[in-house]
Amino acid sequence: MSDTPYFIHESAYVDKDVEIGEGSKIWHFVHVLPNTKIGRGCVLGQNVMAGPHVTMGDNCKVQNNVALYKGVVLEEGVFCGPSCVFTNVLTPRAEIERKDEFGETLVKRGATIGANATIVCGNTLGEYCMVGAGAVVTRDVPAYALVIGTPAKRIGWVSRTGDRLGQDLVCPRTGERYEQTAPDTLRPVDA
Q: What is the CATH number of the domain that holds 147?
């Protein structure tokens, strides 16, 4: 039994200078690089790579085969679906060193990224947005937006619980009401 307040599978590698929050689970073949901070209650699935210099808020779920490169920040409650991709430079070339050009990517609280989606560096995903499986995000995604396609485009809105909102902008699961205050801006009415 381990004395740590988190779980690390015996096949995982966790480098020095890493913070791991209580209740987090790091599964098979994960590699956590230096200067990475993992919040409480996080799950890193099989074959995840995080770091260096990655920050993950509490209660994030990162599914299998995801690489979180330097500059990626996940706020609380972010879900990264299997094999989703975060790029780190805009114009990579094997023969040209561009490590000083890594772009920052901010994924705000409660966002969901579907399986095999690609998030191009330098963009921000808004709170509680939902990126459909296989989408390619090439620009900022508004809070609560549902985006799909290549390049990703907004096709609707979702609630905090991830349920698609109808014309009435009322969450079918919770009854929470939303209002659209501009073409690409949605907010909860009682927030």
A: 2.160.10.10
Indicate whether 182 belongs to any domain: no
Residue in 161, 165, 166, 158 with CA at minimum distance from that of residue 141: 158
120, pLDDT greater than 90: yes
User: What average pLDDT does the structure give for the chain?
Assistant: 96
Number of structural domains the chain divides into: 1
Among candidate residues 49, 39, 112, 46, the one with its CA nearest the CA of residue 81: 112
Kindly report, residue by residue over 52-76, the tens digit of the pLDDT: 999 999 999 999 999 999 999 999 9
- Domain hosting 18: range is 7-161
In residues, how long is the chain? 191
Cα atoms found within 13 Å of the Cα of residue 180, Cβ hemisphere only = 14
Which residues sit opposite 37 in a β-bridge?
A: 19, 55
Cβ atoms of residues 131 and 141 within 8 Å:
yes
The single-letter code of the amino acid at 120 is V
Cα–Cα distance for residue pair 83/5, rounded to 1 Å: 28
Q: Note whether residue 191 is domain-resident.
A: no
